[in-house]
Amino acid sequence: MNQQLAQLMRAMIQYDGGDVPRIQHFVKVHDFAATIGIAEKIDDETQFILEAAAILHDIGIHPSEKKYGNSHGKHQEELGPDEAKKVLAAVGGFTPSQTERICWLIAHHHTYNNVVEIDHRILLEADFLVNSHEDGFTQEGIITFRNNVFRSPSAIEMLNKMWNL
Fold this sequence. Notes:
Blueprint: H1 3-15, H2 20-39, H3 44-56, H4 61-68, H5 73-91, H6 96-106, H7 118-134, H8 139-149, H9 153-162
Helix pairs in contact: 1-3, 1-5, 2-3, 2-7, 3-6, 3-7, 4-5, 5-6, 7-8, 7-9
């Protein structure tokens, strides 16, 4: 992990301070996303954006709970980008195009149709690798999600090995 991503990780830990489950969640999603991106040999810029988005992907949860009383995925997608822009600006060093793409990924991290770009797909896969355990999905649900969403060979392999599928 480079210095800028390490600073972003620390900023997000501060942002979610006291909410250990959410901190643990985004750290795990980041690690899976980083691993999949490397295994899939994505370019350095896409890898950097993917890792930043993975760290920030659930930043809309607290605003969603405050505004709507829940953390539904669509509310996270709606409210997350503005929060992410604040954290990215505070950390500094992110270009406008990087910020735009990171925020787009946050705004679509619960959108499973029309997944075209590799960073979007890997973020969905990494988030599910974590959620499949944290949310207690059934084996049938895991297989269905894998078959409908997963496309990265390394992510499919990790999911299959995690769950002995």
